[in-house]
Every structure is written in C-alpha cells, then in structure tokens.
Design brief:
Blueprint (H helix, E strand, L loop, with lengths): L3 E4 L2 E4 L10 H5 L2 E9 L2 E2 L2 H15 L7 H14 L5 E8 L16 E8 L13 E7 L14 H12 L4 E5 L5 E4 L3 E5 L5 E3 L10 H13 L3 E3 L4 H5 L3 E6 L3 E8 L2 E2 L7 H15 L6
Parallel strand pairs: 7-8, 7-14, 11-12
Antiparallel strand pairs: 1-2, 1-6, 3-4, 3-5, 5-6, 8-9, 10-11, 10-13, 13-14, 14-15
The structure holds N-(5'-phosphopyridoxyl)-D-alanine (PDD).
N-(5'-phosphopyridoxyl)-D-alanine binds next to helix 5 and strand 13.
Length: about 290
C-alpha cells in the first residue's frame, strides 16, 4: 500500500511529497506543529490539540491555512487513506512561501503538510510498561515555550545528549534551578506525602495535552495534585516520577542522573495514572 502525505491541498505518495525551498518553515523555522495519537481509528484529545494549535498560530500571527473543520476533514482523510488503526498524525503549518526576508511577507498563504504513521497497538501488560532513565541539562530554549514551534534545535540537542547517555529523556533546568520539562514531554514527580507535582502552565513550558488530560483524570479520581516548579534535589528525593506526552503516554521514570527514584521501581501512583490514561484513550469517540 502506498503511504500518502498531504501537502498544501494535495494527497501525494509519501516519497514524492515536497515543499518549496523558500517555505519559511524550512528557512526560518517560522511555523508550528501538532502530534496527535490515533487509537483504534480515533484521534486522542483532538479538541485539545486543535485548541493549542489555535494558540500557537495566534501568538505568531500565522493564519489558519483552512478552517478548523476542513483541517479535521483532512486529518480523517489521511487516517483513512493510510489505513491507520493505531498511530500518530503529524502536521505543521508554516507562514508560507516567500522570498527570504525576516519580516512577515505580505499576501502569503500559510503552508500545511501532514503525515501519519502506524505504531503498535496499546500494550499495558507489566512486561510492556518499563521504567526509563532521565538526565538533567540546562534549558537553553527561548522564552515562549508555550508555543508549539517547529524550531526545536535545543530539544534535538538535549534528546541527543540523553540518547548518548543511555537515557530516554533529558529534563531541562531553568535559570532558577527548577525543572521546566523534558525535550519532548512534561515532567512529573510524586513527593513523600504522595502529592502529584508538575510545573504550572506558563510561557516556560509547553502545556502538554497529555498533561492536561492527566490533571483532569487526577481531579476526577480524587488524586491530590499541585502545579508548581520543582528543582532537581526535590525530584531526586521524590518517591515516584514520570513523563507524559502524546508519544510516551505516561512513562515511569526510575532514575534521574543515575540516581534511583524512590525504590528504583515503577511507582504505584504512576501505574494508577497510566491505567486511568489508557482508559481515557480507549474512551475516545471522534470516530473516523
Ligand atoms: N512533543 N513538552 C515538549 C517540549 C514537547 O515537545 C511535548 C510533545 C510535550 C508533551 O505535549 P503533548 O502531551 O501535547 O504531546 C511537552 C511531541 C509529542 C513531539 O514533539 O513529538
């Protein structure tokens, strides 16, 4: 079956999909993106992702390339054409194609590209849920991390550093010594009192859609949580830790900079939250 990509109004074979060399996304990273999980043919938290897209576009004064409803049609069409049951949808919107000049061009239409890919079905068995290691690194990103910009160099360098250290993720530390988030995920700890802690949403972090879903689930299930900054010492002293993202779901963290978190195993509250989250995924109903 030919894999299909979407490029500015056309469904094209993936291998032939291309953008113009003067696309501002290509030249300036002048664009935004979203990644949405597909579970059993349904998009997970589609509304949250589109609301965040609206925020990212608005903050950068990039026009929607089409209406929200039309974008939803294209996403469904891509899932159907690529016969995806479980996987990911990726799309990015740039300010468009124009002669290279830093200031915004006049009369340029935003450019939209989209790809989808398969991933293995959700597996929540004990053997499938493993704990991961994280390292800590300085956060060298810009001051508007709430915008899901395609400009990801610090994240790329951070993830590479993690990978070279044999770790799954790097947690980034701001100028005050507090952890902001991972290079492609949000950071969470459970302290000795059993309180769930994650950094509050601000310009300092990307407000993850998985993060928001976990907070809603915690609220519904009566789990006490606090949204506030925490530093590396507090994280290392925590009883449990985990990361959340569209691609990682809820992933237990068992070591930080080589030091075991709690007893070095998967935390009880973490396991519970993972189970709430997988139920949340299964309950998605935006049928294609
Ligand atoms: N990354 N923080 C950062 C810096 C991220 O890049 C991401 C997601 C998250 C979690 O957001 P969400 O729960 O909405 O996926 C937090 C995506 C998955 C990526 O770049 O592939």
């Amino acid at each position: 079956m030919t894999r299909i990509a979407y490029v500015n109004g056309r469904y094209v074979p993936h291998g032939q999909a291309a953008v113009h060399i003067e696309d501002r996304g290509y030249q300036f990273a002048d664009g935004v993106y979203e990644v949405i999980a597909i579970h059993q043919g349904n998009m997970v938290d589609e509304k949250g992702h589109l609301d965040r897209l609206d925020h990212s576009l608005g903050e950068l004064q990039i026009a929607w390339p089409m209406s929200r409803q039309s974008l939803q049609v294209v996403m469904r069409e891509m899932i159907l054409r690529n016969r995806i049951t479980n996987g990911m949808i990726y799309f990015q919107i740039s300010r468009g194609v124009a002669t290279r000049n830093h200031a915004f061009p006049d009369d340029t239409e935003s450019a939209l590209v989209m790809t989808v890919r398969h991933s293995p079905p959700l597996d929540q068995t004990a053997a499938a849920v493993t704990g991961v290691n994280v390292i800590t690194i300085p956060d060298i990103r810009w001051a508007r991390r709430d915008i899901k910009s395609i400009s990801l160099l610090p994240n790329v360098l951070g993830k590479q550093q993690a990978s070279e250290a044999g770790a799954y993720e790097a947690w980034m530390i701001d100028g005050d010594g507090n952890i902001t988030e991972g290079t492609s995920s949000n950071a969470w700890i459970v302290n000795k009192d059993g309180d769930l802690i994650t950094r509050d949403a601000s310009h300092a972090i990307l407000n993850g859609i998985t993060r928001l879903a976990v907070l809603d689930l915690a609220r519904a299930e009566g789990v006490t949580f606090v949204e506030r900054p925490f530093d590396v010492a507090e994280a290392k002293d925590a009883r449990e830790a985990f990361v959340t993202s569209t691609t990682s779901l809820v992933k237990p963290v068992v070591r930080i900079d080589g030091d075991p978190v709690g007893n070095g195993g998967i935390g009880m509250l973490t396991a519970k939250i993972l189970s709430f989250y997988t139920d949340h995924m299964k309950a998605q109903g935006s049928a294609v």
